[in-house]
Amino acid sequence: MKRLRWGILGCAAIADRAVIPAIQASETGELVGIASRSAGKAKEKAEQFAIPKHYDSYEALLADADIDAVYIPLPNHLHLEWTLAAAKAGKHILCEKPLALNAEEAQRMVDYCKEAGVHLAEAFMYRHHPRIARVKEIIASGEIGELRAIRGAFTYNGAESKGDIRQVKAWGGGGLYDVGVYPLSAARWITGAEPEAVTVQALFSPEHDNVDMMASGLVEFAGGVALTFDCGMWASFRNELEIVGTKGSITLKPSFLPNKHNDGITVQVGDLLREEKPYAVDAYVAQADQFARVVWGQEEPAYPAQDAVANMKLVEACLESAHKRERISLI
What we know:
The protein is of the alpha/beta class. The chain has helices spanning about 15-25, 40-50, 60, 80-90, 105-115, 130-140, 175-190, 285-295, 305-325; strands at about 5-10, 30-35, 55, 70, 90-95, 120-125, 145-155, 195-205, 210-220, 225-230, 235-245, 250, 265-270, 270-275, 330. InterPro entries: Gfo/Idh/MocA-like_OxRdtase_N, Gfo/Idh/MocA_domain, GFO_IDH_MocA-like_dom, NAD(P)-bd_dom_sf.
């Protein structure tokens, strides 16, 4: 069977924990190589995961004709540089979220990849899980009535991890970039629309390079529908999404980190509670397979790269609102 040959730029924890195993378990992918700028680190990871090739520079991996596509899990401020470099080398690109530091950078990446003729995707794995399509079906069926509200939460406590890249402001640190992007992207997907305005309150911590360690907000959509959300890196762990209609509600918990043992859907209409059975699907594997099929022309992208630009515009507005402590209009 044809295989998409992958390379990984960097040895981030997310690659170790999820993406490397997913590519190796996918129907479509083959992990060919991994690169690091730290001498010996790529070799160590290659041995750990039985990856055939390792490189002591990102440039060396991009120069390898045996690599078709790259996954970029580098710190946020490096996404632009290495996406452009990969596109110039003719590689298709799966880049970690958030795609860029702002909408302008994201648009530049999208345009450059389009000109280079390579596929660019933002790595929001949860959106490729089959239950996401099922949620849209339930909403469209009218079972929960008309959409009235969305509530999302994604928090964890990483405050003691001093020096973590998520706590470096110049590198795109902060809770909105790290986990806030999940409920924000989910609300845009659920409504099928772009928001009209945002109001956000945030805790900018001097001990953590003044990044937003916690944020809570209201995102307004047309028709009186709104997302209320909170996100951050200095609170107890929560991972929830609730969609509320006039007749009932849909709950996904865990929402943005579904796992093979807990990826069902809860629907409540009146006093009736229905649990849809778990799918037992690895969302990271689903993401890798969809990416390959897009590269081969077998499918259209489930989420076009331009979607990442729209999400970055929303993230920027949230940060502006938090800094200015005022409502920011997006129309």
